[in-house]
Structures are given as C-alpha cells and as structure tokens.
Amino acid sequence: MTRIAAWGAIALGMLYFLMPLVGMAEFSLKMRRGVYSLDAYARVLGDPKFQETFGYSVVMAIFTILFGVLLVVPTAYWVRLKLPGARPYIEFVTLLPLVIPAIVVVFGYIRLYNTSSWLPLTGTAMGTNILLMFGYTTLALPYMYRAVDTGLRTIDVATMTEAAQSLGAGWITILARIILPNVLVAVLSGAFLTFAIVIGEFTMAALLNRPAFGPYMQLLGANRAYEPAALAVIAFAITWACMGLIQLVTRLSKHDRARN
Amino acid sequence: MSFLKLSHLEKSFGPNRVVKDFNLDVAKGEFVSLLGPSGCGKTTVLRMVAGFESVTSGGISIDGQDVVGQRPNQRNIGMVFQAYALFPNLTVAQNVGFGLRVKGVAHDAASARVHEMLTLIGLPDLGNRYPFQLSGGQQQRVALARALAPSPQVLLLDEPLSALDAKIRVSLRTEIREIQKELGITTIFVTHDQEEALSMSDRIVVMHKGIADQVGTPFDIYNRPTTRFVAGFVGTLNQFDATLIDPTNGSVEIAGTKVALARTINAREGAKIGLALRPEAIHLGRAAGRDVVLPGNIRDVHFMGSVIRITVNFAGGQISLDTFNRPSAPPPERGAAVVLSANATDFIVLSD
Fold first, then answer.
1. Contact between residue B202 and residue B56 where contact means Cβ atoms under 8 Å apart
2. Facing residues of B211 across strands?
3. Residue A260 has what pLDDT?
4. Residues of chain A positioned with their CB less than 8 A from the CB of B131
C-alpha cells in the first residue's frame, strides 16, 4: 500500500512537471497548420540575431565562470582553512544577490561606473562587457559559492594543505594542483548553474544595452507565437545537456569513484 | 653535535600555555619519539618543527640553521600524517613524485626516484593506482614514500599508525624503523602508544602538561622512570607510598613492612617518598634471593594466554604481578592468602 502511494506521488509529481513541457514542445511543433514540423526551430536557429546573441552570451558565460572560479575557489578555500569563524558572514554576503534585485545592482553599477565617474567602464563596449561579467558573477555567487563550499567539505582541506606544504608547495600550487582538481565536480556544477543564469539573464544585459540572449528571448516572446516555445525547448535541452555533462565528468573522474 | 635543536620552545594559545620551556637535541639519524597522553603538547611541538604552528618563543634549528622564520614549504621537512593525507586526484606514483615536481626535478630523475621509493616501501607495482584503491596500510606506506622522496632533512611522523588495525600497526612500525635506519634520516615520531615508542625509538621524550617529563632510552624510561607520571604512563607500575627510615642505606617502611633498598636516598629521615615496582619484578610466593616479602590476598586473576596477571590486595591498596602460564600450575583462587616476593634493587624511587 505504501509502495503504491509512493509511486502515485511520483507519478503526480512527474505529471506536474512534464505536462507543461510536453504541451510547450507540442505547441512549438505546430507552426505549420495541421501537421507537426520543425519550422519554428528552423526559423529560430536560422535567425542571425539568435546566433549573435547566443554566441555573445556563451562567451560571457565562459568569462563569468572563469572569473567566478578564480574568485570563489580561493575565497571558499581560505575561509575553510584560516577563517572558519567568518563562514556565516561570507555565506550571508554570498546570499545577498538573492535578495537584492538585479535592477538595483545594475543601477548601482551605472551610477558608480558611468562615463563621468573615476572608472568609466560604461564608456566602452569592452568596459561594459566587463561590468556585465561582474554583474553575472554576483548573480551566480550564491550557487557557485555553495557548490564549491560543499565540494571542499568532502575533502580534508587542512591536512592536504599541510601535506602539500611539507612537500614544498606554495599556495598557487596547492590551489591549482590539489584543491581545484579535488573540487572539480563541485566547481563544474556551479559553472553550469552560472551558465544557465547567464544565458537567461535579462535585466542587466538589457539595462547595460548589451546584445545578450536574455533580451533576445524577451523580444521574440513579445512578438512571435511559436518561436518562443521552440526557444524555450532549446534552452531546456541546453540545461539538460549541462546536467548530463556534470554526470559524465563525475563518472570520468576516477578518483571520485570511491566517494560516490 | 645535535642536528635538530629545540631550545626553550614555548607555545601559547591565548592564556593557555600548551608547551613550556621545551628543550631537545636530536642527533643526525636519530629516531626520537614524543610520547604522552592527549593534550600534553607533543603534536604542537611537532607542528612547530614543521612550521604549521608559530612559535611563541624559543628556537628551532636544523643542521645549525634557524628555521623559526621559515614557512613550512621552505623547511625541507617530510611529514606523515595520521589521516594519510594522500592527494585523491593523483595516482600513487604522482603522489610520491609530487614533492619532486614542486622542486623542479627533471622528469627522468623524478621517475627513477619514485620507483626507488615505491620499491623501498614494497609497492613497486602499484604506481598507477589511486589512493582509494589501496588499503590503509598501503596508503600510509605511500605517504611515507611521498614524504621521503624529496630527501628531507628531518622526517616527522604524526601518529602515523593510529588509524590502522593492530596487526598492520605492528608490521608497519617495524618497516618504518627499518626504512629510517636504512636511510639514516633524523626522525621525530609522535605517539600516545607506549609500545610503539618503546619498540621503535632510540630515545623517548615523555611529555606531560607541555613539558618534557623525562628524556631517555626506552630501557631507561621503562626501567628507571624518574617521576610518578612517567611511572604511571609507561607500562603498568605498582606504586607505593613509603616512609624513609634511614636515607643513607635507603631503609624504608611500606605499610608496616621494612625494606632496605641498599642505596642512598636524597631525602630527610621520616619523609614520605614514592616507590614503584614493575609487575614482572614481583614473584608469587617466596623465592630464593628475593629479600622483600609482602603479604596479601588474591583480588583478581586475568588469564591472558601466555601471561597471567594477578591482582593482590595489599595494605589497603593493590599490587599487580605477571606470571607465565604453566599448564601444570593453575593460578590461585580469588581470596586466597599469598605472599609476594621481590628484590629490593628492583624498587624504583620516584621523584614528584
């Protein structure tokens, strides 16, 4: 009886999540009247704007991930190693992007870094891109920090650091050759979440006037019927591919097998 | 000439002084154990030598060079940890070669050294395995090889056998000692296990409340403990309170029984002194040549196979003694009245 109830609950949950997806996917295939077709997908993928904005967001996502890793891994490592008492405060700071709306952050950026400020980042496209990358890093901080911190919890950071130090290693060697490879799966899960955030982010990119994928999706959604559904399915496919990649990397990293 | 010199070493955590005026000279190639209970400061001393803890005051020099100001990665020290601390992302060979790579040793020379080290620890074919594919004993041997590979000046062993099961522990301690002798490397070994310390060391430092209570060879530490703490901590020891009758010939009274220790005792007549006697120095019954006879009755008998430990009630206290098992002579019954005999020369006079 309990088993049946459990399966029933799972079935209900699956229906709750899958029905809208199936409906959306089905709708995205109905562009041609009376038959299923991939016309909406062809139009989206063939649109030069799609390619341009998606390409831009992918590049931004890569730089955001790199910057995020460089910022978060040493910070989380240092807090765990030397400042365990500061952990609650750091966690609080990393949670702030969840409660401060992106629009507040971006207006703050514009006010601080406008063309008449001491650091006029918004004066050039490159400067604005850098500013947008910082903004994306901030938005992804709660996820990236938690992912890395959880990864660090699974290894004995202090003893491994001391072992490496006794073998002559300095901080950069320890971080690059010992700590980072051992939290790589956690870093990757944080990286894929960052990727998903950057790809879908609208507010910052729109207000900084950068040709990102988020504003493109919003524009398409406001003016077309079938293409936004196709775009949403494509976005889901990318997300699931990312999750599949996390699984793949986890399985391929030999030394993690013992822990799984 | 000491190779590793610790002079007036002090360490405080806030108001808590965990190491107090600690002095130790270790000769080149010597194996010294720091032995003591939890919280006695032995690991703190080791960590100060490694550079993982700062020194509150005092000096540490290796081969005449002061290392107090040096970072851990500048000290040329090899360390083996209780928790193995192998890098899980690296294979056994990569783990062993890590220190060599950090030092910038050429690939061929590093590979040869890794192979040499793996052969030394008896695992020449496991270079391609990952740490999780090894047993605890194998992991600790790899950790030892990793620590030795860069040819450190001093090897530090922080309770390396504590996480292993009893049988592996015994075999590995023999291996560690043999490797240490073969390489002639100066070694500091931290342990709370007296058997490990007694069986492996050239010298033992018994630590208590942050100070070195006694420094000596295993034979001296076991047979001639100088303080009550050392006497109680190392091995099983029967302790007696005695009254000094004559300091010149060492005549004392233990619970009404007069014993002549036949040595001069540096205390005034009538002073209370502490005496101790090892269980193996006591004989059940009278025996020729044993001049001290103590009466009592059997409290408990523990059969441990080849040895039987007997506890005897004596003058309101207890005395433990060990006898070998003999199938033809069963141990006495509980409550039986017995006499114990010992040699006056086996009594140890304790200072506080």
1. no
2. B208
3. 42
4. 255
Which of B74, B83, B99 lies at the smallest CB-CB distance from A159?
B83
The tokens for A205 are 């990119």
**Chain A contact for B97 (CB, 8 A cutoff):** no
Q: Does B160 touch chain A (CB under 8 A)?
A: no
CA atoms lying within 13 Å on the CB side of residue A154: 21
Looking at chain A, which residue has its C-alpha nearest residue B143?
A: A163
Cβ separation B81–A254 shorter than 8 A: no
Helix (H, G, I), strand (E, B) or coil at A252: helix
Answer yes or no: do A166 and B83 touch at CB < 8 A.
Answer: no
Chain A residue with Cα closest to B96: A167
Structural domains of chain A, ranges and CATH numbers in brackets: 56-254 (1.10.3720.10)
Cβ <8 Å between A162 and B103: no
- State if pTM tops 0.95: no
Check CB contact of B279 with chain A, cutoff 8 Å: no
Q: How far apart are CA B40 and CA B53, in angstroms?
A: 16
Of A156, A159, A255, the CB nearest to B89: A255
B124 touches B115 (CB < 8 A): yes
Residues B254-264 have pLDDT tens digits of: 888 888 888 88
Q: Give the residue on B whose Cα is nearest the Cα of A159.
A: B85
Q: What's the pLDDT tens digit per position in B95-142? A: 999 999 999 999 999 999 999 999 999 889 999 999 999 998 999 999
Distance CA A198, CA A55 (A): 12
Q: pLDDT tens-digit profile of B265-291? A: 888 888 888 888 888 889 888 888 888
- Dihedral sign of CA atoms B271, B272, B273, B278 in order: positive
Find the distance separating the first CA and the last CA of chain B, reported in whole Å.
31
Cβ neighbours of residue B242 closer than 8 Å, sequence gap 6 or more: B252, B253, B254, B259, B272, B273, B274, B275
Question: ∠ CA(A91), CA(A94), CA(A99), 5° rounding?
Answer: 115
B103 touches chain A (CB under 8 A): yes
Judged by DSSP in three states, B255 sits in coil
Identify whether the C-beta of residue B339 lies closer than 8 Å to the C-beta of residue B294.
yes
- Top residue of A81, A156, A161, A166 to mutate, by most chain B CBs within 10 Å, is A166
CA distance B61 to B34: 18
> Do residues B268 and B341 make contact, with C-beta atoms less than 8 angstroms apart?
no
